[in-house]
Amino acid sequence: MLEKTFYKMMLNKSLPFPVKVTYWDGKSEVYGNGTPEIEIVFNEKIPMGDITRNASLALGEGYMDKKIEIHGDIQKLIFGAYESADSFMRSSKFRKFLPKQKQSEEDVQSHYDIGNDFYKLWLDPTMTYSCAYFEDGNENDLEQAQIAKVHHILNKLNPQKGKTLLDIGCGWGTLMLTAAKEYGLKVTGVTLSEEQYKLVQKRIYDENLQDVAEVRLEDYRELGDQTWDYVTSVGMFEHVGSENLPKYFQDVYKYLNKDGIALVHGITRQQGGATNAWINKYIFPGGYIPGLQEIVGDIVDSGLQITDMEALRRHYQRTLEIWDKNFNAVRNQVEDKMGERFTRMWDMYLNACAASFESGNIDVIQYLLTKGPSGKNLPMTRDYMLK
């Protein structure tokens, strides 16, 4: 009886719309006014202590282990929890955690080295695993939106043919290889993922780009004294940890030539830095979403100057929604390859992230930075970015 009272209090405070809840004893209740579109089924009790200590971890694991079933729109359910001021999602979801620097390689590999075949199942053909850019706001062609994102980033640099570019955390290489083929740049990509390295290396040779492109399986902090005209880094600083953010931006500064330009694209939390215990344990070990003030402070302290900032929150929400649609279209293949628990985990992850962006709990921002006076080698207005 006590458990049900606790669950009722938690759900009544956490959701702005009616839900049906079926408990472990088979009895059901509807919380809120109206006809519920979502049902939560507790096949087993989740101890109250586990939820109060860390709701995201307890409920995330409960869903993975089928102690909890959700019938209806998972993203809507999580978004509703973010919308309520007294929700457990706001009070206990995020816990500060500072990952140790020596873990970076292991942390990156645990996520990206799941295998290229897994990501190929549901990413678009560009194999781009970061926020896309939907130019008219309504299109659903993810491949085109990812290509548009790459051009949006490169255009912001106002790049000049023959100059050099370093891509920190190059992923599967679409940005760096586009810069080489279409912008005439000499490019270097670095990654800690062996799976990504092998695929990018193959792409370089397949496309005969050896003279203008190279990829290194190397820590970005260990690139020596070489410098480049441009630096890009997409979806990277979320992995370095709070204690390493100052050094990350110092390295961006270090690797730029005099009057060089950098475009750093990453998930930022405008309300302040945070982690999610469930995502940290199962999806991104060592991950940390820095706060906007923290990021800006580290940028300024590094010696870089901010020329432009652009928030793309809604673009990442749409990206995640398409990813989840793609993922569920091949769900049986994922289950056969990775197992049911992993599949439920990944589906929950994509929905939870989409809801988090939708609610404004997290954002993704592009920072255009210069080594030297802000905007010195860029056009006077932002019009050039949209060419």
Keywords:
7-stranded mixed sheet; about 375 residues; about 15% strand; 4-stranded mixed sheet
Structure description:
The chain has helices at residues 2-14, 48-53, 55-64, 74-83, 88-92, 104-112, 116-122, 142-156, 174-183, 194-206, 245-255, 277-282, 292-302, 313-329, 331-338, 340-359; strands at 19-22, 28-31, 39-42, 68-71, 164-168, 186-191, 213-217, 228-234, 256-268, 305-311, 363-370. It is an alpha/beta fold and 387 residues long. It has a 7-stranded mixed sheet with strand order 7-6-5-8-9-11-10, sandwiched between helices. Strand 5 (164-168), helix 9 and strand 6 (186-191) form a beta-alpha-beta unit. The longest helix has 20 residues, at 340-359. The N and C termini lie far apart (63 Å). 43% of the residues are buried.
Which strand order spans the largest sheet, edge to edge or round the barrel?
7-6-5-8-9-11-10
Per the principal axes of the C-alpha atoms, what is the gross shape? elongated
Q: Major β-sheet, in short?
A: 7 strands, mixed
Rg (CA only): 22 Å
Would you list the SSEs in sequence order as H and E? Answer: HEEEHHEHHHHHEHEHEEHEHHEHHHE
Mean pLDDT: 89
Instruction: State the end-to-end CA separation.
Output: 63 Å
Q: How many β-strand runs? A: 11
Quaternary structure of the protein: single chain
Topology:
Layout lengths: L1 H13 L4 E4 L5 E4 L7 E4 L5 H6 L1 H10 L3 E4 L2 H10 L4 H5 L11 H9 L3 H7 L19 H15 L7 E5 L5 H10 L2 E6 L2 H13 L6 E5 L10 E7 L10 H11 E13 L8 H6 L9 H11 L2 E7 L1 H17 L1 H8 L1 H20 L3 E8 L17
Parallel strand pairs: 1-3, 5-6, 5-8, 6-7, 8-9
Antiparallel strand pairs: 1-2, 3-4, 9-11, 10-11
